[in-house]
Design a protein that fits this description.
2 copies of one chain form a homodimer. By secondary structure, chain A is an alpha+beta fold. Chain A contains 15 helices and 19 strands. In chain A, α1 (2-9) packs antiparallel against α2 (42-55) and α7 runs antiparallel to α12 (333-347).
């Protein structure tokens, strides 16, 4: 089999020690794959699927490996299909679209679109390295998604290779197969291309930072500001643990002990942009926050640097972490953040909360040292946090996907009949079970 | 069987002559159904599906019957499930959502949301009578969809009864089953409820009408204005045939012989709203149009009345019509509208073109009198018009769905493998073929 694979893809088959690097994503580690292949065209992907089908080999698609749910982590004996060499990108500024292969990095689309006054809104934190294929697999979000929506909202057409090695290129009509593949974590087909929608760049932006004495008050202010009509482009928060960690890391003078809200409004009219920001400012102040407005782009950039530094900063507190990704109704936010804080205390584990609070999308991170804190306890707490979300009418994944990490939680969140319906869809599109087995569906 | 049905739903089973009314939608007529049932709850829908399954009876879901592709037209011996009695609507203004049963009329959501400063954007022409269930089945659009997106873009959660009579209530995570059901024309399950997203009402609107000497120039102006960054809320057009028909009907002083463009911009800042309209105005003028701006809401309303009158006005020219619903890339618009005009002339049939030109979504209507013009020729021309769309990289349905009317065209638009994949999905979710057989999939 390896012989045939090498005849097909030559040096782009990795079967030596270098394949060990492909066991990881950004949160989990799996066994070593049988081999890693780096296709360069849809035709190579087709040949690969036919070969895998013939030998009964599982295929695990992979982008940059920056995922946070284990979706790209291989199982024993799998073939990892790394799409990082499929990087063709064609802009159509007149039609405001771009055609991209799955290995194109997320940030590159906006970079190449900027000279035409356009941008591609979905902006996962890893957007400088993450690929469009991975973003599609997990239906990735990001801070801008509060105003602009997630990856799937920008897909006009999708090209994929099915379980029989056939290529399909489909718009979103009749049965929405593109929509079905988006977020399916590579379990239904291999995406080989996508046409995405681009938007005109807004002319103005304005940013503020509001420091709250307590994290529940912050959540209540967010809930109220939005109910009153604010539609910020970004609305992010850091709890006191995150603020302390970032301050230790960057020393930029953040108020230790406070919870921070960062808000950005954007648009084509400066007055409206500032008016919207004032609505957030006044609401925050009425909940006891001290508010600092950025006076220019540079000050705004400094404030956003604090938000982007959260992940590396938390890595300095404990060597490992479990990154939750729940989403709850905004009206439930104050209670949810408080309950999660209390759970962390009860378990004696450090829980740091941050995330896209405008969407009700929280990332409670459990920080731990496997030498000091037993991993089972960590996973038990993660499970409890998931239950808090479900109890308040929320969902298990805002934007990271289910992957390996939340499969067990999904079994709790869905009734058996619904799960059966999902398995029926899987069986119809991937009857041989070739695509990313063991992921997503419990 | 009818006995059991009547035991189940009593007087809400129609098996007398009144069932004849349920043979129609707004474009096609089918055979008389076996019976019509009017369920009032999800439990009744469940019982109905189980009964239909036991007796092998096809179920044809139906809303207001205002559809334009035959999706709700029964086949011989079918049971029509009319959802017009399931009209519960619950607003959550704080969360900016509404929960609606399928029989709720489209316009009612915006009407009830208005006191809270909110609205529901999808606005098919029939929105005063059309139901949410029908809108979901066909993934309906409308003029506002250029800026705001179609029905599916507003769905947060969907409740449906599957082929085994089980109820599922799902958000849009893991496999996007709600997305799969939206636009599936009742062929995969029966929708019994939906949670939709509401938006804040824009504070200002501005409207203009531009009269072009030729329809291709109008299309070219639209393509250019959008490429330059205009994002109007509505962008509609009427070709000279439509203008003449509306003028005959309403006598409002429209310029006969011209093609008309109607544009509306909206937003929270009057200056930006007017600036965006000026961009459309200048581009239109540069393509030789005479532009008239509405000075107030009343003038704007009068201009939009012309657009809404197109359908009844065309009905006065010939007793029957075939309403096409193609969508093409905006850059192809000038050539597409000219080619369709030429095709109409070559066939010696009246073709009136109008539609949501901002989206590239055109409704070429072939007007005919079955006594004077042979119907086969009409359908041949409809097929040719569909081919024009496909040749220019377009699709067969912008917003009306495939239904019965475009099944044959869909066979041409899709490769056999893709069609097989769609049938596999149908087989997985509706193994007995109970739901709306004979629709959508060729």
């Amino acid at each position: 089999m390896l012989g045939e694979l090498k005849a097909l893809l030559g040096p782009r088959v990795l079967s030596g020690p270098e394949k060990r690097v492909y066991r990881y994503d950004a949160i989990l580690v799996g066994p070593e794959p049988l081999a890693v292949v780096l296709p360069e065209s849809r035709e190579e992907v087709q040949a690969l699927v036919r070969l895998a089908r013939r030998f009964g080999l599982p295929l695990v698609p992979r982008g940059a490996g920056s995922g946070l749910s284990g979706g790209a982590v291989p199982e024993e004996g799998a073939l990892v299909v790394a799409f990082t060499r499929m990087t063709r990108l064609e802009l159509d500024p007149q039609g405001r679209t771009a055609w991209a292969e799955p290995g194109v990095t997320t940030a590159r689309i906006s970079e190449e679109a900027r000279p035409f006054g356009l941008f591609y809104p979905p902006d996962p934190a890893s957007w400088r390295t993450s690929t469009l294929g991975g973003n599609l697999g997990e239906n990735a979000g990001g801070p801008l998604c509060f105003k602009y929506g997630v990856t799937g909202d920008y897909v006009l057409e999708l090209e994929f290779v099915d379980a029989f090695g056939e290529v399909h290129r489909l718009g979103r009509q009749a049965y929405d197969l593109p929509g079905l593949l988006i977020g399916s974590e590579g379990t239904l087909g291999l995406i080989t291309g996508v046409r995405v929608r681009l938007l005109p760049l807004p002319r103005y932006r304005a940013t503020l930072m509001a420091a709250f004495p307590e994290v529940g008050a912050l959540a209540a202010a967010v809930s109220q500001a939005i109910a009153e009509g604010a539609v910020p482009a970004r609305l992010e928060f850091l709890d006191p643990t995150c603020v302390g960690a970032v301050e230790d890391y960057l020393g930029m003078g953040l108020p230790r002990g406070d919870a921070l809200l960062l808000a950005e409004t954007d648009g084509d009219d400066l007055e409206v942009v500032q008016e919207e920001l004032s609505l957030v400012e006044e609401t925050a102040a009425s909940f006891g926050a001290r508010v600092q407005k950025a006076r220019d782009e540079k000050e705004a950039e400094a404030l956003w640097r604090a938000r982007r530094a959260v992940s590396p900063a938390l890595g300095r507190i404990r060597p490992k972490r479990v990154n939750e990704d729940i989403a709850v109704p905004r009206s439930a936010l104050p209670q949810v953040v408080r309950e999660i804080q209390a759970l962390g205390k009860a378990y004696g584990l450090i829980v740091a909360q941050f995330g896209h609070i405008g969407d009700g999308n929280l990332h409670p991170n459990i920080l731990f040292d496997p030498g000091r804190e037993p991993e089972e306890k960590v996973w038990e707490l993660a499970h409890e946090i998931a239950r808090v979300a479900l109890r308040h009418g929320g969902v298990l994944s805002g934007e990271h996907g289910i992957g390996l990490m939340k499969k067990a939680f999904l079994a709790e969140a869905m009734d058996p009949d619904t799960l059966e319906a999902l398995w029926a869809v899987k069986g119809a599109l991937d009857p041989g079970g070739v695509f990313n087995p063991g992921k997503l569906l419990p």
